[in-house]
Amino acid sequence: MGKFYGVVNGHSKEPRIFTEWSEAKKEVTGAKGALYKGFLTLAEAEEFIGMRKETESDDDGLTVYVDGSFELETGRYAYGLVVVSGGEEIHSEGYAMKGEFSSMRNVAGEVLGAIKAMEYAIRNGHKKLHLYFDYQGIESWAIGTWKRNNALTMGYHEHYRKLSVDLKVIFHKVKGHSGNRFNDRADEMAKMAFRK
C-alpha cells in the first residue's frame, strides 16, 4: 500500500485520509461496511473518499449526481439525476414508479438512478463516469463489497458488471442534505417525479 490511506465508513463514519497504516487499521478494524485503499498521492486518496471538487473531475469523464426518494402515501419510489459539465447542470431527469422494490423505499430510487446514469454515459459516448451519490450501497453493491441479498441489489451488481466493460465508473460518496448544490438538485428531481 501507499503513503495515503483513504477510508470510507470507518468507525468515525466520516470519510478520512491517514498517512499511517496503523491509524487507518484502527479506523477500519471491526467497522461494518468499511472501505479502504492505499494510494501514492493525496489527490488519489481524496478522489477515493469523494473529497475532490466537481470541477476537478469535469475534464476527465462525465459527472452525474443521483438521489432517490420515496412517497409513503402511494408506495412509489423515484430517482433524480443531474448531469454536470463545467460546473453547470446540462441535463436532469426524474422518474417515479411502484413495484416489487418499493419495500426498499428511497434506496430503490437511488439504485435506479445509478443505473440510468451509467446508461446515459454510455449512450452519450463517455468512457468514464464520475458518479456522485449519498447512499454507500450505490458503490458497495456495484463493486461487490456489500452482500447482495435481493433481486434489486443482485440485478444492479450484474448490470454494473456488464456496463463496466465499456465504462469506468468512479464512485464519489457525498453527505446527503449537506448543501451540496447538485446532490440537492438530484434530490429535488426525485421529489418532483411524484408530481408527474
From TrEMBL:
Q: Which UniProt keywords apply?
A: Endonuclease, Hydrolase, Metal-binding, Nuclease
Q: Which GO molecular function annotations are given, in alphabetical order?
A: metal ion binding; nucleic acid binding; RNA-DNA hybrid ribonuclease activity
The alphabetized list of GO BP terms reads: DNA replication, removal of RNA primer
Gene3D superfamilies (alphabetical) = Ribonuclease H-like superfamily/Ribonuclease H, Ribonuclease H1, N-terminal domain
The record's section on CDD domains has:
RNase_HI_bacteria_like (cd09277)
PANTHER family listed in its UniProt record: RIBONUCLEASE H1
**What name goes with this protein?**
ribonuclease H
Native organism is Youngiibacter fragilis 232.1
